[in-house]
Protein: ATP--cob(I)alamin adenosyltransferase
Organism: Nitrosopumilus zosterae
Amino acid sequence: MKIYTKTGDDGNTGLQGNFRISKSHPRIIAYGAVDEVNAALGIVLTNILDDDIVKLLTKIQNDLFLVGADLSNPNLNDVKNRVTLEMIQNLEHSIDKFESELPPLTNFILPGGSIAGAQLHYVRTIVRRAETQIVQLSEKDEINSNCIIYLNRLSDLLFVMGRLINKRKGKDDILWKI
């Protein structure tokens, strides 16, 4: 099978259930943003990170495919939602675990520190944009609401991971100064 099908040459694309919609539809924009998050995590993973972080980020990359699959389904009655509360709880568990290694925040911090820490903060901003685009989609079409919650928790986790990687690399948080 060839990678190109030519079926999207008219500006439309296919969804689950043999639906075709414009490539500018909020559904396509939303799951495209999730795909961007996944690609950005792939860049982070090219850096030398601790095994626990690598394992978790790889799991998250796989989970993001489930988020995209749920978003590409315009008919929620046809298929069981893939993004579950358990996936969200796993993110929350990781946040709690990693936060226990960090000093409490007393100031806002700036993205930076190590390359991997800064990249995690950058991916967090992509996640926030993806979440916003999914919310916009949910205002127009029915979606699995767990997708929004999952990305909300993921942005929190990436913030904590950015701080954690910096701490593990001996880099202090960069405090925001007025």
User: Anything to note?
Assistant: The chain has one domain: 24-73+81-175. The CA atoms of residues 50 and 168 lie 9 Å apart. The mean pLDDT is 91. The two ends are 57 Å apart (CA to CA).
